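Before relying on records like the one below, remember that each one covers exactly one chain. Contacts with other chains, cofactors or solvent are not represented anywhere in the record.
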Amino acid sequence: MSAQNKSVFIDPSDKKTLDKLLAIAIEAARSGGQILRQRYGKPHDISKKGAVNLVTEADLASERVVTTILRQKTPNFAIMAEEQDDSHGLNQTGTMWVVDPLDGTTNFAHGYPFFAVSIALLQQGHPLVGVVYVPMLNELFTAMVGGGTRLNGESVVTTKTDTLIEALVATGFPYERKAKLPGIMRNLEQVLSHARDVRRGGAAAIDLAYVACGRLDAYYEIQLNPWDTAAGWLLVTEAGGKVTKMNGETYSPFIPEILASNGLIHEALRPLLQ
């Protein structure tokens, strides 16, 4: 069971504490990633949460390892984890870890090596630390509030692309897509006709990390969950980028849509998206 998240408060200016919490998140993400690496390319026990929404034994094993470390190191912190349904109703303004033990399950199940472990610490709805670990590339993206974003320990920033026709933009498609398909295709058509090109990787956390480190200029998607974006949100903003709702309004990981960019092409993208 997840701890209640009403009494813990962390001073966002307390760098020493944030450093310790970031180190805990890194340890947990690497441990979850090791599980995924060990099970990659092997037969999987696959079940379904929807027609195309999969969960594997690796999701569950990674989540057990990650949450065990977080509970041992921060016993008073609540944990919202993707595969623990009873944690999804935690107080959104409280302090809690938000965990995706395997972002990109469909990729993983098909042997497509684009997946990650994502861990964020949220307080009052805003991230204090964020980690995205891509095990098959051994790439560790980290950020803490006020401390910038790093890739394997090296500082990274968003691109300086300032025209949409020169931009590489990523997107994703929701699991429950039939009713939303006309809007999804309209947005894709609009962006594809105005940008240099569009990519669809299948892991929101990595897409956000790639915006942060300059491999992508922007990313948008709908029907997301907090564990998909909480860590990546901080990666982008600490790298100098901008994150909002698709209409430009204030972002929250508890709102199921996102537009993240280097900031320079944000206003050019926004009117293309419904």
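The chain has a mean pLDDT of 94.
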